[in-house]
């Protein structure tokens, strides 16, 4: 059995001034070259991320972490992100680390579990679904108004708080209005929620070419995430054994499963908004600001 990875000592020592002496350190994830922990102290809890120095892509992950920290600073300065979200960041002998405010919330897939079956069609569920979608789009509207695109809108990057609000996390791939100094080129994010126009650009350009995501791509990803987590079906059907280029080629066609064919129960306003988000032509999708009143 492998040993449980410990967070960088340099980060824990510095963060103690924020959290107090840690009372619990919990490993959250250890995959794809990066690790994450929850540090709980008497004063507050933070989420700490660091690159895995033994991973095959350790250098890329360290650069991505530095890029996320830069994105957080710029987003905060632009008024698109609350000032207390970023806690601290720095280097350690294995690379880079980043700490952000801990958000108590359930991942979108788990939060929408009660709505995925026919029994979800009850009075309390409809306003809950609408509230999650509305607060999610309000956050994206704030980013888009500041000239930013999240560029990684997907279920695991959205937490639903006990108050039923969506909280957006993970800004490593965000695209800003001036990305000339970008450390890592944007090449799309989770395949299943990649907008058709991005899928086309990924397939048509070299792997080291930066693709500047645009707000309509966030909107498609939003619709895809809600479709997936409400129905239990991905919006674009393809064989699981296809490689990523093959899946992107299917997505690039712009065809999605009809929501009415897989919805667990009818919810016309919610369905219409999701369907509008998944329009194949980016120009036909609503803006995040328009969506805030559509749910």
General description of the model:
The structure is a single chain. With 295 residues, the protein is α+β, with helices and mostly antiparallel strands. The chain folds into 2 domains: 9-101, Phosphorylase Kinase, domain 1, CATH 3.30.200.20; 106-291, Transferase(Phosphotransferase) domain 1 (Transferase(Phosphotransferase), domain 1), CATH 1.10.510. Helix content is 37%, strand content 15%. It has 10 helices and 8 strands. It has helices at residues 9-19, 58-77, 108-111, 125-145, 196-204, 215-231, 244-252, 259-262, 268-277, 288-291; strands at 24-31, 34-40, 45-51, 86-92, 95-101, 106-107, 158-160, 166-168. The strands form 2 sheets. A 5-stranded antiparallel sheet has the order 1-2-3-5-4, sandwiched between helices. A 3-stranded antiparallel sheet has the order 6-7-8. A hairpin with a 4-residue loop joins strand 2 (34-40) and strand 3 (45-51). It is globular, with a radius of gyration of 19 Å. It starts with 8 loop residues before the first helix and ends with a helix.
Short overview:
This protein has 295 residues and is α+β, with helices and mostly antiparallel strands. The chain is 37% helix and 15% strand. A 5-stranded antiparallel sheet has the order 1-2-3-5-4, with helices on both faces.
């Amino acid at each position: 059995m492998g040993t449980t990875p410990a967070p960088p000592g340099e980060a824990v020592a510095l963060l103690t001034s924020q959290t107090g002496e840690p009372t619990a350190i919990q490993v959250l994830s250890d995959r794809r070259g990066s690790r994450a922990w929850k540090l709980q102290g008497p004063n507050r809890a933070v989420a700490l991320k660091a690159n895995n120095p033994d991973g095959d892509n350790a250098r890329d992950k360290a650069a991505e972490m530095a890029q996320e920290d830069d994105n957080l600073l710029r987003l905060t300065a632009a008024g698109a992100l609350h000032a207390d979200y970023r806690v601290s960041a720095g280097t350690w002998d294995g690379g880079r680390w980043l700490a952000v405010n801990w958000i108590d919330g359930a991942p979108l897939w788990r939060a929408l579990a009660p709505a995925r079956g026919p029994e979800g069609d009850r009075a309390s569920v409809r306003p809950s679904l609408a509230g999650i979608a509305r607060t999610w789009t309000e956050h994206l509207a704030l980013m888009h108004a500041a000239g930013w695109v999240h560029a990684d809108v997907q279920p695991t990057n959205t937490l639903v708080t006990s108050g039923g609000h969506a909280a957006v996390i993970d800004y490593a791939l965000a695209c800003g209005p001036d990305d000339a100094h970008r450390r890592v080129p944007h090449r799309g994010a989770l395949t299943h929620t990649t907008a058709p126009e991005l899928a086309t650009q990924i397939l048509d350009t070299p792997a080291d070419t930066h693709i500047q995501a645009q707000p309509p791509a966030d909107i498609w990803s939003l619709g895809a995430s809600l479709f997936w987590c409400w129905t239990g079906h991905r919006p674009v059907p393809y064989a699981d054994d296809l490689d990523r280029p093959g899946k992107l080629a299917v997505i690039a066609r712009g065809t999605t499963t009809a929501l009415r064919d897989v919805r667990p129960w009818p919810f016309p306003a919610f369905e219409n908004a999701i369907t509008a988000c998944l329009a194949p032509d980016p120009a036909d999708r609503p803006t995040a600001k328009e969506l805030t009143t559509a749910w």
